[in-house]
C-alpha cells in the first residue's frame, strides 16, 4: 500500500482528489443550474428584515476576501488526516447536491439596490453585481462554505484554539456580509448553515463516506501509480 502523505507536504497526496472533487461539484451545481434555470420563474424571498438591513458597500471586502479563507481552511481541514478529509469532502459534495435540488425546485432572485456615490468599495460591489447574477440565492453557498470552514476544524485540538475562534467569527462575518451587500436574504444564511451542519453530521456519523473513499482510492492508484511507474522507467534509462 502506497504512503498517501508525503512528509511536510502542503497538500497531502490523499487530499488532492477530494479537494478537486469539492471544487468540481460546486462549479457544476452553481454555474450549471444558473444556466439551466436562467429563464425559469424565480421567487423573491425578501422579508421585512431584509428591507430593514442597511447597505454597507465596505463589506464587499469580506464577501470577496472569504475566497482566501476558504482555500486556507479547506487545505487545513484536509491535513487533519485521510479519513477526516474524505468525510469532510463527502459532506461538502452532499451539501451541493442538496443545493442543486433547491436551485431547481425553488429558483430564487432578489432586487438589488442602485449603488450611489464613489469609492473603491462601491466600485467593487458594482463589479460583483455585474458579474454575479441574482440567482441561486437559497441556500447561500457563501454562508455554507464559510460555515464548513469552521466546523471542519471545530474541536480539532491540532488546530490552535485562537484560529478556531477566528474561523467561527470570520464565518459569521461572511454571513453578515451577504446581508449588507444585498447579495442574499436572511433565510439564505440560515439555510446555508443548516445544510452544512446536517450534511456534516451525516458524513461523520455514518459510513456513507466509504463510497467516496473507494472512488478516491481508485483515482489515486490510477494517477500516482502510473506516475511512479513512469518515473521509475525514466530512472532506469
From TrEMBL:
Top-rank lineage group of the source organism: Bacteria
Keywords per UniProt: Membrane, Transmembrane, Transmembrane helix
Transmembrane segments: 12-33, 53-76, 97-115, 135-153, 162-179, 185-204
Inositolphosphotransferase Aur1/Ipt1 domain mapped to chain residues: 66-201
Gene3D superfamilies the record matches: Phosphatidic acid phosphatase type 2/haloperoxidase
One Pfam family hit: PAP2_3
Protein's name in the database: Phosphatase PAP2 family protein
